[in-house]
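Narrative progress, year one. The postdoctoral researcher (J.K.) led the effort to move from monomer predictions toward full complexes, under supervision of the PI. The following entry was the first complex the group processed end to end, covering 667 residues in total.
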Amino acid sequence: MADDGEDGPPCAVLAELLEESPEDLYEHAPCGYLSTLLDGTIVKVNETFLSWTGHRADDLVRSRKFSQLLTAGGRIFYETHYAPMLQMQGSVREIAVDLVCATGETLPVLLNSVVRHDDSGRAVAVRTTVFDATERRSYERELLRAKRAAEDSEARAALLAETLQRSLIPPTPPEIPGLGVAAAYRPAGLGDQVGGDFYDVFATGRNDWAVTLGDVCGKGPEAATVTALARYTIRAAAMGTRRPTRVLAMLNEALLRQRAERFCTVIYARLQTVQGHWRVTVSSGGHPPAIRLAADGSVAPLGRAGDLLGVHDQPILYDVRAELRPRETLLFFTDGVTEGRRDREFYGEDRLFAVLRSCRGLGPAELVDAVVSDVVDFQRGATRDDIAVLAVQVPA
Amino acid sequence: MADVLIRNNVTVAGRVDGQPIVFSHGFGCDQNMWRFVTPAFEDRYRIVLFDHVGAGHSDWKAYDRTRYASLAGYATDVLEIIRELDLSDVVFVGHSVSSMIGALAAIEDPDRFASLVMVGPSPCYIDDANYVGGFSRSDIDGLLDSLDSNYLGWSQAMAPVIMGNADRPHLGAELTASFCRTDPEIARHFARVTFLSDNRADLGRVSIPTLILQCMEDPIAPKVVGDYVHSGVPGSELVVLEATGHCPNLSAPDETVAAIQHFLGSQAARG
């Protein structure tokens, strides 16, 4: 306490403050104040509470229970939460309810209560302070509204991303008669963004098939439109030519004409049966090569990387041809696999080769699963990029 | 199946070879609701306590909006607990909405049960034609608003505390403060399922001896509702307690215990 120095409050004011009657401090406290019996019957109430609610002391004291002053919803909350907590903990804080005033209007309030005990430690009464929370409540309602709106649009965005994404990969697992085919697509993070990865498998003629997998730079709706363009252009182009480099060159032209300003990497493989053997012709537009897993477990890249698509007028592209032997597997993947990161370390090609070697003898579906889970585990489940993996396998 | 016991945070106490007595909490809290009642049964009964999924220390991950879209899902849980512990001759004591959950379980598999004690039951909270449940539909919407407002303090950070995350023992103090707290979305859903339920047609199908404990002034399940349950459950017994409020198990444990023991005593004498 400051002395009555020259800078302190005038003596008269201080004296008056110190002499305020407990009665007045109680009656006109800046909060409502009630005492109730354990069953909630009101036995004492201050002036502030009465002026806020418009109730008369005579109508409340000894004749009403506190919960009877609440709205029906608040009363249920009071009986199912407030009363049990008070009985078990001896106090409750910051419970939000609405009081019904004498006029029938409601007053949003916050309640704090403590149980009073007598000298022998027996609970005898409850003291409750009541704080006007009108403005706080309307602010809270705004918060709730904003939270719900945010949750709704989040859900809508996720659904949109999922729907869009589904249109970029085949709706059913791809099939090529006489070959085992399996594919997996795993969106990055929470999957709430459309990624740029795509793959497709389709027939181009009798005993002639196309397998393609690509990655459009970026994410989101704009990347998705380019991804859709790429997928459908490849399908259309493959009807006019069987040469993989020609298909990719036509895609390149379409991307440039679209002025998409987004490049992409695509690998395209033509698979055909020639006299009972499977032959593959691969062309890569800036995409990681396919990986060939031989029956003896040896692993080698297949294909020669050409230019990115959507950048140059005349991209340099190569067709590489090979025969696929029985029990041989060809794996296609996006850079979400090799560039998967843990801290500063990349998953890398060596790890991919190692997991493939360990997959010797597995069918295409098990092999794809093994690769995806190895990459995801490496990143401790928190993948930052989409992962697309596709495997074709010649049966024994 | 042992994960049923973890899912519902089942605790077993009392006399190992005693008759099983299962206590089931209602909307708003957890098995702590019975803490003043159970000691009186410890020396004679095998006491089984549990938390409904979404409450207390149950496994919240097991909360499934479809399974718990009606009280039948909770009744299935009760039966799964009883079968897992291989209990028979069960006395089921249900508070509030759990008295109806117990009734549904007893209808489904009556052979497991000896008797049913309904504390503050209501088969239907909303008024309907000549039926008085005590509330209107808009009252229940008001409750949901009230829940929203009161769970604002609940945050993602609280979830592991309430769920009993062993990695963070330093949060013990907050745990006390979080008593009776729950995930707001679960609370809303449970409130909706509870207060919009209508199980009036099931009362007549209860075939085991039943005691109804009705508080003198219960704002949630008024006397007229207790009378309705009494007339609906064949051969049931109604005891009106002097206690007021909706939780005599907390506010008047002695009177509650005495009424249950008297009922069980008379059942045994008849048995």
